[in-house]
Write a structure and sequence with these properties.
Strand content: 5-15%
Helix content: 25-40%
Number of helices: 9
Structural class: alpha/beta
CATH superfamily of the largest domain: FAD/NAD(P)-binding domain
Radius of gyration: 24 Å
Length: about 300
């Protein structure tokens, strides 16, 4: 056990309890003996999370209610007024990632834990020196700075039609049609691509939708003897314009910095609505959105114009 722990906090987080528990013996017995109950339980979990998207609408009443509940949860475990102020976020719920934990505040309230909010200025031989001039003695530093969230597919280098790289295409921030297909990069299908992250429900559900969509595209390639499918540039541009317009009305576009968006403020990680809406849009491909090239055309002396498929 550490004698003293100092937490250097860059910004406060909204924290809500996890409330996990083990299933009871009776529940396990019922799930085993009555299979429909498993489906109903899964559906209950899905919809209980799905409605929470309403909390991420700009200036939402539900968002304010969650902020009030999170504040009360924090105050239950943090009694020191100064520490309460340090741990109270100055941005709306959802602008940054919400922490879900049953022991975060309990850990910070321990007598051998200190929370420092002054920015780190430099690292000395035996201390961390903050901008206020204080030297915080340390013999071990946990350098927890997060991870790259905006560089999709890094460090791979992917080249599309005409020698254009994906890095060039995404110079202003990653984007894709349904988070799956990128114009000018035939047969490149992404899973968990741009704007398919969530703040309220299961990423697994989103990936399941994407896998089904990609498999149907592959089936079409085989059934129609196609060399490739390439989403049309105007279709992708229109889709992303609508997506970014919808995102402007969410908490993710509020005035804080977060790993959801670029330095310019473009949200490139999160989906803009309910997951059921994403399922509806990806349940089957609209092949009119794609240009195609037949395998036979690869042998032609002059490549034909790109064609659009009927759905």
């Amino acid at each position: 056990m550490a004698e003293q722990v100092t937490v250097f906090q860059r910004s406060a987080n909204w924290v809500i309890p996890r409330r996990d528990r083990a299933y009871t013996r009776l529940e396990k017995w019922l799930f085993r003996r009555v299979p429909p109950l498993r489906w109903l339980h899964r559906a209950w979990i899905y919809w209980s999370f799905e409605w929470r998207f309403l909390a991420f609408a700009k200036d939402s009443r539900l968002g304010r209610k969650i902020a009030e509940a999170a504040t009360k949860y924090m105050e239950t475990h943090i009694t020191d007024p100064a520490l309460r102020r340090a741990l109270t976020p100055d941005y709306p719920v959802g602008c940054k990632r919400i922490l879900i934990s049953d022991d975060y505040f309990q850990a910070l309230a321990r007598p051998n834990v200190a929370v420092v909010t002054s920015p780190i200025a430099r690292i000395a031989r035996d201390a961390v020196v903050t901008a206020d001039g204080a030297a915080h003695a340390a013999d071990t530093i946990v350098f927890g700075t997060g991870f790259q969230t905006l560089a999709f597919l890094a460090p791979m280098r992917i080249t599309g039609l005409g020698g254009r790289t994906l890095d060039d295409a995404w110079r202003e921030g990653a984007e894709a049609y349904l988070g799956i297909a990128v114009a000018g990069f035939p047969n490149l299908f992404l899973l968990y691509g741009p704007n398919t992250n969530l703040g309220h429900n299961s990423i697994i559900f989103m990936i399941e939708c994407q896998v089904g969509y990609v498999l149907r595209c592959i089936q079409a390639l085989r059934a129609r003897d196609l060399a490739w499918l390439d989403v049309r540039e105007e279709v992708m541009a229109r889709y992303n314009a609508e997506l970014q317009s919808a995102l402007r009305d969410t908490a993710w576009a509020a005035g804080c910095t977060s790993w959801y968006k670029t330095a310019s403020g473009k949200v490139i990680n999160n989906w803009s609505g309910f997951t059921v809406a994403y399922w509806w849009r990806t349940r089957r491909p609209d092949f009119a959105a794609f240009a195609a090239r037949a395998r036979a055309d690869l042998l032609a002396p002059e490549p034909p114009a790109r064609t659009t498929l009927a759905s």
